[in-house]
C-alpha cells in the first residue's frame, strides 16, 4: 500500500465516520422532537401544527401534524400558510427601524409629531415599540365587539382607542399592548406614503423571497392555507370571523415556517437593517426608574437555562404561534398551530432547549 493510498484511505475513514455521526445525530434529534411534539399534537384527525428547527440557517427538522382542513379531510403539510397573530409585531418593528434608517422618522420622536391630533404629547414611538406607553389596549375594551367585523381604516382604529384614559404614565411600566403597534402601523403609512400591507410586501416579503407570506384575508384565495379552528365541548368549530383591519399591524400577517426562516436569516445577515438598527431591535431597555425589562422592539429578550434567547408568540382566532431564536448557536425553532386550543409556546421552547443541548453534546463529543 503506497503512502498516498494510505492517506486517502484515512481521509475516507474520517469522512465516513463524521457522516455516520451526523446521520445518527440527526435521526436521534428527529426522534426526540417527534416524541415531544406528539405529547400534545397527537390527534391525527383534528387540527394540528407545523414545527421547524433550523441551525446555522439550514433546516434540520420540518414536519406537520394533523389536518389543514377538517371538512375536506386534508392533512397539514410543512408548507401550509398560518395566521401569525402577534408575531406580526416583529415585522412592524423592523419596518419602523427601516424607515428610521431612511431618515423618515426617529424612534424617540413623540407620536403627535406624526399624528397632530393625538391627545398625548409625551408618548414616543420607542414607548410604543417596547409596550411602555400606558395607552389603552383596544383588545381589553368592552366596545371591541362593536367594530370587530367592520372594515376599519388605520385612522379609525386609532380614533377608537386614542381618547381612552391611560393605564399608567408613559415609561413607568412594561405592559404588553396591541394598540401601540396599531399606532406604529398607521405611522408607517403616514411617513412611507404607502399602505402598511404594501410596505411590508415590497420592502420585506419581496426583498427576501417570502413568497408565501401575506397580509391576512378571508376572501382571497391563498395557496396552501391552513384553516383555523376552536375547540368546544362537542367538538371543533370554524374560527370566529373578524376584520383583519382591526388587529392590523399588531397581528394580521400570514406566513409559513419556511418563510419565517427566511425572515430570521435575513435579520442575521443584515439584509433589511444595518448593524445599528438591528442592535436596537434586540436590545433590552429601561423604565424611567432605571429598571430593566426584557423586551426589545418586537421580541422578548430572555434567557433559557442561562442562554440568551429572542422569542415571540402570537394568538388570533383559530391560530397560535411561537418562535424562539438562540443567537449563540444560531438555532431557530418555530411552531404554528391551526387551533387556538393547541398552544405551541412551551413546546417550541422545549424543542429549542433540547436542540441546544444535543448540539452542544455533539460539539463536545467531536
Automatic annotation (TrEMBL):
Pfam families: Beta-lactamase. It comes from Ohtaekwangia kribbensis. Gene3D superfamilies: DD-peptidase/beta-lactamase superfamily. It comes from the Bacteria. This is Serine hydrolase domain-containing protein. GO terms for molecular function: hydrolase activity. Keywords: Hydrolase. Its EC number is 3.-.-.-. Residues 43-340 form the Beta-lactamase-related domain.
Amino acid at each position: 500500500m503506497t503512502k498516498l493510498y494510505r492517506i486517502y484511505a484515512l481521509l475516507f475513514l474520517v469522512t465516513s465516520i463524521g457522516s455516520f455521526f451526523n446521520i445518527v445525530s440527526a435521526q436521534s434529534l428527529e426522534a426526540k422532537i417527534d416524541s415531544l411534539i406528539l405529547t400534545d399534537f397527537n390527534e391525527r384527525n383534528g387540527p394540528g401544527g407545523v414545527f421547524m428547527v433550523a441551525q446555522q440557517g439550514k433546516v434540520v427538522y420540518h414536519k406537520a401534524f394533523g389536518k389543514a382542513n377538517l371538512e375536506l379531510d386534508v392533512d397539514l403539510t410543512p408548507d401550509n400558510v398560518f395566521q401569525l397573530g402577534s408575531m406580526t409585531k416583529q415585522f412592524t418593528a423592523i419596518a419602523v427601524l427601516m424607515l428610521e434608517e431612511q431618515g423618515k422618522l426617529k424612534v424617540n420622536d413623540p407620536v403627535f409629531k406624526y399624528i397632530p391630533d393625538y391627545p398625548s404629547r409625551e408618548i414616543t414611538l420607542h414607548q410604543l415599540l417596547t409596550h411602555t406607553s400606558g395607552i389603552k389596549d383596544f383588545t381589553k375594551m368592552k366596545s371591541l365587539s362593536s367594530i370587530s367585523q367592520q372594515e376599519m381604516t388605520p385612522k379609525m382604529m386609532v380614533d377608537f382607542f386614542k381618547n381612552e384614559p391611560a393605564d399608567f404614565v408613559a415609561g413607568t411600566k412594561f405592559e404588553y399592548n396591541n394598540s401601540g403597534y396599531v399606532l406604529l402601523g398607521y405611522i408607517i403609512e403616514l411617513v412611507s406614503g404607502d399602505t402598511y400591507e404594501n410596505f411590508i410586501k415590497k420592502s420585506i416579503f419581496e426583498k427576501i423571497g417570502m413568497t408565501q407570506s401575506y397580509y391576512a384575508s378571508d376572501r382571497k384565495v391563498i395557496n396552501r392555507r391552513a384553516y383555523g379552528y376552536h375547540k368546544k365541548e362537542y367538538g371543533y368549530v370554524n374560527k370566529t370571523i373578524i376584520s383583519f383591519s382591526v388587529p392590523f399591524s399588531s397581528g394580521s400577517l400570514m406566513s409559513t415556517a419556511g418563510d419565517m426562516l427566511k425572515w430570521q436569516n435575513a435579520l442575521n445577515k443584515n439584509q433589511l437593517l444595518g448593524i445599528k438598527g438591528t442592535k436596537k431591535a434586540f436590545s433590552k431597555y429601561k423604565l424611567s426608574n432605571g429598571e430593566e425589562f426584557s423586551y426589545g422592539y418586537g421580541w422578548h429578550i430572555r434567557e433559557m437555562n442561562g442562554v440568551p434567547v429572542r422569542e415571540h408568540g402570537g394568538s388570533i382566532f383559530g391560530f397560535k404561534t411561537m418562535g424562539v431564536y438562540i443567537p449563540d448557536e444560531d438555532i431557530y425553532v418555530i411552531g404554528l398551530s391551526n387551533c387556538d386550543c393547541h398552544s405551541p409556546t412551551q413546546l417550541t421552547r422545549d424543542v429549542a432547549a433540547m436542540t441546544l443541548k444535543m448540539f452542544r453534546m455533539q460539539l463536545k463529543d467531536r
